[in-house]
Fold these 3 entries.
Entry 1:
Amino acid sequence: MKTNIISIDGKKGSQVELPLQFLEAYRPDLIKRAVIVAQSKDRQPYGADPRAGLKTSAHHIARRSCYGSLANRGIARMKRITIGTGPLAGTGRVAPHAIKGRKAHAPKSEKIYKTDINNTERRFAIRSAIAATADKDIVSGRGHKTEGITEFPIVCEDALESVTKTQDAFEILELIGLSADLERTSERKVRAGRGTMRGRNYRIKKGPLIVVGNNKGINNAASNIVGVDVIEVKDLSAEMLAPGTHAGRLTVWTKSALDMLEKEKLFM
């Protein structure tokens, strides 16, 4: 399968043969598993204080003959505060249903969230996600705006890797035909829920991904473009190609990135 190489001026040039990774079968189930495994390794353990809800003077006396026993008093035999005569005297503590009591099933920091995947499956998932970037129906079905893009995958000349200014990178992406998708990612929506109080007020949409053979400045140039990510081909992962487990991210490949895929047999 061949595709045209687009210059940074937006003009079509010579054709290039796509590597075998683009011919892999589309497996959304395997891609989803690989992304979830990658996300599980970034999850931070958390848990409650083992003494939470137990730091109290409340105690329980069940023997009838003892002073302060709760027997024959018509109240629940739970641990209660028996010290003093103030408003807290006689109130229940410790029990999960009591005020300021312990949690019935508190989270434990010992829990292991990390999961693993075989290297064969992981490489298969990456190849499948690479092949999904060459299918227009999968890319547009993910929500990307593909108006003005004539063929997939999008392959650009190596001059894109040397761009160092954000304005130049933005103009090149527009000339390639990504102006509609860049406009889509520029729209910000206020996040629903408690996250607005924790420094993440807005949801940022995932835009185009630029895959390069060698980063010669394009990473700095594209870092200020909302939704755009830059990655070297050797560092590709299923999570980068399929954010949120949904494959078909709009991807721009450079000629050198395709050459490295073919020569070094990456992810094979």
Entry 2:
Amino acid sequence: MKPEKYTIMFIPDDESGSKSFHLSKRVIQLIMTGFGLLLFSCLIVLFYYVPQMSDYDEIKGRHDFFASERLKVLELTRNIERVKQMDELVRKSLGASLEVDERPTISDSVTGTISTQGSHLSFIENIPSVAPIQGYISQRSAKSSLFIKKAHHGIDIVAKEGEPILAASSGVVVFSGWTYEFGNLIILYHGDDYFTHYGHAKQNFKNQLDSVTRGEVIALVGNTGISSGPHLHFEIWKKFVAIDPLIYFPEYRATDLTLTHE
């Protein structure tokens, strides 16, 4: 005859105060069934939901990666538009006075001088070699990223307002005027696909299509456009690609204020 009840006893080592519990066969069956269901549920979670959680982490990682790549594509698109605008500006500004697409014919093989209608450029003097001003670097070149929303294509050089700005090399003025971001801006074309930009000037001394020589004063340091104080925003472009000016002017590293925060 099978028992209808089971007794569970808890007996201390000193055999005092023992306790007993009487459980019916039906209660024990219910407890075993509940434990089985709990174990089955744990197995379902382990084999079904855990892989899904892993897939979620993988999908989230891919989403973050594609989001960062999309930001890079958007920044490249903006850069391409800027290059197109610069190219159009050069074409409209120079016209027949200077052929940008084709390398001009060298008239003097010793000095590298070329002649165009109304302008003379030298491939020896077109490489930026004269520091536009003496001052302190408050911001360096930086590409856009997840933490940097907007690329900074040049360097900011803090100087006293009214200080003369020098042409980094000989060239032709392709733009001289006002822009919303850089205030009074001058863009020089130096031949061999070199361009230099000088922004936030207080006053521009050169006009469009003017020829300038290396080291010539072209403007004064100012605080125009989107600016928090008197400084020069200086950029160097080669074949429509922005180049860090510190490569051409390493002497600026001695007055680089940004290094104190690295």
Entry 3:
Amino acid sequence: MPALRPERSRVRASSETIPGFFARGLNYYKLFWVFFLCAFLGALVETLFMLLTKGELQNRSGVLYGQFSLVWGLGAVLFTVCFHRLTGQRDLVIFLAGTLVGGAYEYLCSWVQELLFGACFWDYSHIPLNINGRVSLLYAMFWGVAAVVWVKDLYPRVCTLIGCLPNRIGKPLTWVLTVLMACNILLSAAALIRWEQRQLGLPPENAFACMLDRRYPDERMYQSYSTLTFVGDGEPRP
């Protein structure tokens, strides 16, 4: 891979010195918008990928409302925190670091999801060189390529885009979207947990669980998580 041209880091640094540039440096505002934008774009990319490769229009969102892939959004935040200072490094260094970090991140996501929800959101058991079906060398290398593209090209562009937000609008909008996204994630997690409980034959224990059964029955959940499968008796894989 060719070495990364250092001009791009200087362009980003100079653009952030413009008066009124929103979310200058690495702070919560920038990380939130990195998460928000990449979660949205990631869900769209996955939907398009499945449509082109399998001819299926699948809902690839990780939440009940809106098209947001939490894995992509949090992955972009992870790459930003870990690699934002690697702009001047060789592409091979970024690729290897992204492969290791991305593979570990994907394994952790799979383990946490199965631990919390007793469900499998993806399974690489049919792909050679996989670890417990949670991650494979092939997809870990995809993370490596994504790290190179993110550091070299996408992150500077995303920074410039975020910086265009007026400060008087950007800051309050960030906190409004933070609250809405947090509610969306918590509600989605509660609905998933209750969905698993229904698979185990557990009755609702309170009014909130009854509401979840009414508003988010199995049919509704299958529409939102069409690729999800529950793991055995609810116990996570190794």
